[in-house]
């Protein structure tokens, strides 16, 4: 009974035709698309914040709190200098300010007394002038003492060398026990928070780059990031005929370090490319092909020449396809359908 039913279904089913092989396949069309015209160049990653800290006062190095490759926070103390002399100057400045305050307070009281008596016309104008001058002089001495105290505090602070920004120590230029003098280099470091890429660009490309002001940096993981700013130096290197161009990167880019070589892409205009979904391309040994569906819904495997990927899921076709032709999005299923189509054609 079951065999009879199966035979009846076969007799009632519509006959297979070669065109039916491609009717239900998901497809997409090759499209001629206007895209940015790009030029690729090598670049070098640089740290925007890189500095060598120098001593601003003299003193023996008592302690170095960091070493090469250590990470430090902004404002953290990294070197301590001997501060005996600076503390003595601070104590002296504080004492002189106290004395100046006492003199100013005494002069203020004397001025108020003289002013009251002068208003009652019991003293001469010269006495009033003398009290006024004494008050002004004591005020000036007070301000001078206050300034000297601030300077002494600053000199004491100079004995504690602090990190100007968060970053990594790259070089130590002094050791514990050595004496630092003003202007002497102590330690170097860089910050990885803000990076840029320096590129030497041929002078023939500079007008287009100035006009477009758009560039991307290719990261080690094959992704790309757009430069937030493009800076072109206003002069060329006479030896190479190239302009220095700096590409500023967004903050906190993982996987990039100063000194690394990277690829960059500069937009220098517009061009047209024939694009198809990258998933539709078949790679077999050295053959690159796609399954094409013609206007009669017939499948065929056609060799093509591909270019670069675009937008992650599209790929450029350099030869083998024309604008508007349909390609199968599922190459595996399309291959199976092509076998059925070939068999159906042979049976006919």
Short description:
This protein has 348 residues and is α+β, with helices and mostly antiparallel strands. Helix content is 30%, strand content 39%.
Measured on Cα atoms, how large is the radius of gyration?
Answer: 40 Å
* Average pLDDT over all residues: 87
Beta content comes to 35-45%
**Class computed from helices, strands and strand pairing:** alpha+beta
Instruction: Estimate percent helicity.
Output: 25-40%
The total tally of domains equals 4
Remind me, CATH topology of the largest domain?
conserved putative lor/sdh protein from methanococcus maripaludis s2 fold
The CA-CA distance between the termini, in Å, is 31 Å
**Outline:** elongated
CATH architecture of the largest domain: Beta Barrel
Question: What is the string of SSEs from the N terminus onward?
Answer: HEEEEEEHHEEEEEHEEEEEEEEEEEH
- What's the story with the biggest beta sheet? 9 strands, antiparallel
CATH class of the largest domain: Mainly Beta
Low-confidence stretches: 1-14
Oligomer: single chain
Tally of DSSP helical segments: 5
Number of strand segments: 22
């Amino acid at each position: 009974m079951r065999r009879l039913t199966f035979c009846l279904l076969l007799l009632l089913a519509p006959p297979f035709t070669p065109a039916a092989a491609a009717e239900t396949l998901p497809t997409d069309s090759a499209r001629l698309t206007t895209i940015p015209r790009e030029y690729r160049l090598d670049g070098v990653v640089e740290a925007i914040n890189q500095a060598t800290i120098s001593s601003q006062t003299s003193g023996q190095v008592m302690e170095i709190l960091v070493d090469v490759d250590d990470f430090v926070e902004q404002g953290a103390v990294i070197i301590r200098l001997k501060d005996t002399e600076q503390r003595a100057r601070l104590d002296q400045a504080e004492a002189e300010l106290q004395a100046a305050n006492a003199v100013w307070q005494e002069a203020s009281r004397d001025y108020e007394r003289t002013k009251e008596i002068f208003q009652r016309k019991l003293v001469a104008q010269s006495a009033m002038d003398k009290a006024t001058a004494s008050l002004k002089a004591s005020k000036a001495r007070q301000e001078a003492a206050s300034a000297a105290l601030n300077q002494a505090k600053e000199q004491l602070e100079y004995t504690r060398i602090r990190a100007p920004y968060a970053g990594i120590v790259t070089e130590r230029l002094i050791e514990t026990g050595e004496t630092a003098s003003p202007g002497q280099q102590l330690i170097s470091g860089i910050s990885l928070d803000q990076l840029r890429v320096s590129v030497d660009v041929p002078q023939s490309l500079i007008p287009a780059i100035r006009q477009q002001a758009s560039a991307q940096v290719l990261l080690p993981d094959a992704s790309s990031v757009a430069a937030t700013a493009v800076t072109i130096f206003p002069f060329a290197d006479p030896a190479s005929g190239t302009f220095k161009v700096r590409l500023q990167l967004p903050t906190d880019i993982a996987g990039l370090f100063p000194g690394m070589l990277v690829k960059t892409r500069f937009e220098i205009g517009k061009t047209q490319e024939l694009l198809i979904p990258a998933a539709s391309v078949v790679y077999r040994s050295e053959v690159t092909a796609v399954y094409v569906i013609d206007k009669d819904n017939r499948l065929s495997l056609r060799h093509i020449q591909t270019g670069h990927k675009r937008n992650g899921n599209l790929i450029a076709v350099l030869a083998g396809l024309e604008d508007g032709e349909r390609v199968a999005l599922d190459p595996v299923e399309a291959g199976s359908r092509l076998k059925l189509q070939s068999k159906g054609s042979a049976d006919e």
